[in-house]
Amino acid sequence: MSDARFKDAIARIDAANADDPETLRIDGADLPKELTHARMLTDWVRRLRPDADNALLLASRAHHVRRWVIPRDEYPAGRRGYLRWRTALHQFHADEVERLLADAGYAEPEIGRVQQLVRKRNLRRDPDVQALEDGLCLVFLDTQLGDLRRKHPESKMIDILQKTWKKMSPQARDLALELELATDDRALIERALADSEPDGA
Predict the structure, then answer these.
(1) pTM greater than 0.85
(2) Residue 175 above 90 pLDDT?
(3) Is the peptide bond before 109 cis (omega within 30 degrees of 0)?
(4) How far, in Å, CA of 79 to CA of 83, rounded?
(5) How far apart, in whole angstroms, are the C-alpha atoms of residue 95 and residue 13?
(6) Tens of pLDDT along 8-67?
(7) Tens digit of pLDDT for each residue in 87-134?
(8) How far is it, in rounded angstroms, from Cα 134 to Cα 157?
(9) Nearest to 96 by CA among 3, 7, 12
(10) How many CB atoms lie within 10 A of CB 100?
(11) Residue 2 has pLDDT above 80, yes or no
């Protein structure tokens, strides 16, 4: 945290995310969604990995930087459209990371490592990527599950939760079960896990 470049980069990423027109209501205040999620993700990653280096923390903060610039509805419906959107986002986020970190004084190979993490390359084989994925899943469960549950049928939510659970490490799964969730959200998770494979994956 004493690295001036690191502090500058975090400030630049936060400033970029502060422009998000979508907000989340937190403790009675409406805050930019991506800025709030990025801070939550960083906190989760610190909890999951107390030994996290600056590259992992920068990736946590910048993972969805300015995500609203490329909305989902610009791409066709269905899985193929979704995958095209995700590919475009990964490239966009990597480009934004390069620009923001370069402006803060970073150079290769440091920028390249953060870009690799943002793209979530080598999930399961790279513990840093797994920590990032775990944190994203925990942010999702903590802040978005209730809204999605009210929008989609239970069968779809069961599928979403089972896929989310498969991506998480045992440590993250334990933390997920400790979240203070609404009664309906917790019951939905319990039904999803009850209907999943025997190993809970």
Answers:
(1) yes
(2) yes
(3) yes
(4) 6
(5) 13
(6) 999 999 999 999 999 988 888 999 999 999 999 999 999 999 999 999 999 999 999 999
(7) 999 999 999 999 999 999 999 999 999 999 999 888 878 999 999 999
(8) 19
(9) 12
(10) 25
(11) no
DSSP string spanning the chain? ---HHHHHHHHHHHHHHTT-S-EEEETTEEEEHHHHHHHHHHHHHHHH-TT--HHHHHHHHHTTTTGGGS-GGGS-SSHHHHHHHHHHHHHHHHHHHHHHHHHTT--TTHHHHHHHHHTTTTTTT-HHHHHHHHHHHHHHHHHTHHHHHHHS-HHHHHHHHHHHHHHS-HHHHHHHHTS---HHHHHHHHHHHHTS-TT--
* Residue 27 near residue 40, CB atoms below 8 Å: no
Q: Tokens for 38?
A: 């990025």
Q: What interhelical angle do 54-62 and 4-17 show, nearest 10? A: 10
Can you tell me the distance from the alpha carbon of 181 to that of 199, in angstroms, rounded to the nearest whole number? 24
Q: How far is CA 46 from the centre of its chain?
A: 14
Task: In whole angstroms, give the CA distance from residue 3 to residue 195.
Answer: 47
Place of tokens 């440590």: 171
| Amino acid (1-letter code) at residue 162 | Q
**Is the CB of residue 97 less than 8 Å from the CB of residue 111?**
yes
- Judged by phi (left if over 0) then psi (alpha if -120 to 50, else beta), residue 78 lies in left
